[in-house]
Amino acid sequence: MSYLDSLANAKPITFGVNGGASYSSSFSPPSTFGELLSDDGINDICAFNAASLEIQSTISSYGGITAQQIQDSIRKANEVVSIIRHHFPGAMGSSEILERVKRVLDMYGADNILLTQSVCPDEINHEHGDITDLFIENIGGKTGFGAYSAHVADGGHAFVLQAPHIGMSDDLVLGKYSREGQDHAGSACGAAVGAMCHCMAGKPMPNLATATADWQMNYLIQEIGKRMPALNACAEGNDKQAELARQTHQIGKDMLEQCLTTNFGDANSMLFVMTGIQINMPFEFEDYFQPLSFEVRKKDGSVTDLYQEAFGTWYHND
Fold it and tell me: Residues 6 or more apart from 42 whose CB is under 8 A from it?
């Protein structure tokens, strides 16, 4: 009998003050763990990990757990993953993304890489274990990319990550995030949501020539304004917030293209570029990442698409 089967067949345990165990006589357990799950099987490793951590936390806090609580944890984890898969096909945990990317880099023999990123500085994007955890510098336009790439060693390579982010609150609402220490969910990404709200309210577009004190936000408002037809076509709620993340990704990707060059390193140096959407997950989940493009550029001008090699055919941003 597996550990999970034995757990399902066991009565809930509570621990006494002296470490002794006592059992509830009112509990009628299912015969197998499969019966416990009913139709709520689990096939996502991050969902399993999140449910497991919540189960462990419940046992640690209350001294025991019921089969119903285990089932509720699994069902909640599955619901989170279902929403993410619907709105962000191909998204997976950051650790899985990093493993897949590393396999491709190893195939290219790229073991001396300087990393950089174009990611919102929100602290929820830079927690331990996030995909941005390894990307230590930020791109600052053409000048910033030039300064970064000038630091690539001879024979070394550059890797650029570009990704807007979107949160999911504990209420499973996209575009919001339940931050530790706050009793309410706040916007994530706040800048993107704020820009869309500015446009939906019909406020005038800012003049970028004079908006030097808040140029980045005003630029985002201008660009979101151009994309309001696509956003207005979406239903309010999660659909619109997911579309906002996709539009923000495209805004960043278009700007990134204006900055990138292969004028660094030596003749063998390569530029790896990956873009996507970072998803700040609720509860005990590690953050997810939806890869949308992944390629390598060489000094001869060639560009090789690495997306399928790394991520399969879940989604491809052609």
Answer: 48, 51, 74, 77, 78
